[in-house]
Design brief:
binds adenosine-5'-diphosphate, Rossmann fold, 256 residues, alpha/beta, binds magnesium ion
Length: 256
């Protein structure tokens, strides 16, 4: 699975089944009232064809509980790269990222998988739903690898209700419109009640009307839940919904 396209959606978390919570993840959870994201002097470079490409340079920002941030920039400006680092899918080549005080670089692969599963919700441009599962089953996928929680099924139903799909619980992805599939993906991102929700071009595959509805839904849900929401997009329409916007330009994050 391409980590940039559908990463963090439960694949790695399978390692964790039936294991007690690793200490590092426990300390993350107890620290969840603190700063959720802290990036310091963050940089990412790739070597390609013998040449070094500095995609991100000296990125600094913090996000507190309940915060949100829209990052805009043209295609190729490094938006997905930054999101992959914030979601602990990739490590930066320089600087540090701390997620609620925890440095993902210090976690083992197994701990990282559990950490992402519980603490980060991902919404990608493609909905990444499993075609053979119903809407409700898709929302519950991240919980399959977590310790049992009797409340989760009810929460998944509530979330589908909240995204306007209370009458579509048993629909399979092929029976849903593009906008509805993305709503299921948003409910799935929230089912574990993550500290951090990361959305990479969440309206990129939708027509204007569905994109508008998903934009409204994201901002509404964010007001009601306490997760930090980070949305990266090249859509000015989506970005203008967010008061705190930054622009990625020449690898640096500047005021939009
Ligand atoms: N794994 C990689 N190896 C080499 N170059 C990469 C890699 N991932 C991304 N890039 C390059 O980094 C730049 C930013 O990519 P990306 O973060 O996907 O941009 P955006 O999401 O803003 O369109 C692009 O020039 C891309 O080619
Ligand atoms: Mg991208």
């Amino acid at each position: 699975m391409d980590a940039r396209a559908c990463g963090g959606l439960g694949s790695g978390a399978l390692h964790e089944r039936n294991n007690s919570r690793p200490a590092a993840v426990q300390s993350f959870m107890s620290a969840s009232a603190e700063t959720v994201v802290r990036c310091e002097s963050l940089g990412q470079s790739y070597v390609s064809g013998g040449r070094e490409l500095d995609v991100l340079q000296d990125i600094n920002f913090t996000l507190e509980p309940g915060g949100f941030l829209a990052i805009v920039g043209p295609s190729g400006s490094g938006k997905s790269t930054l999101l992959a680092i914030l979601g602990a899918l990739e490590s930066p080549t320089s600087g540090t990222v701390a997620l609620a005080g925890e440095d993902p670089a210090r976690l083992s692969e197994k701990e990282l998988a559990g950490f992402r599963n519980r603490r980060v919700g991902f919404v990608f441009q493609d909905h990444c739903l499993l075609p053979q599962l119903t809407a409700l089953e898709n929302v519950l996928v991240p919980s399959l690898v977590a310790p049992p929680d009797a409340a989760r099924d009810a929460r998944a139903r509530e979330l589908l209700e909240a995204v306007g799909l209370g009458a579509r619980l048993d629909h399979r992805p092929a029976q849903l419109s593009g906008g509805e599939k993305q709503r299921v993906a948003i409910a799935r991102a929230l089912v574990m009640q993550p500290a951090l929700v990361l959305c990479d071009e969440p309206t990129g595959n939708l027509d204007a009307r569905a994109a508008d509805a998903v934009g409204t839904l994201l901002t509404d849900l964010h007001r009601r839940l306490r997760s930090v929401l980070v949305v990266v997009t090249h859509s000015a329409e989506l970005a203008k919904r967010f008061a705190d916007r930054r622009l990625l330009r020449a690898g640096r994050l500047v005021a939009a």
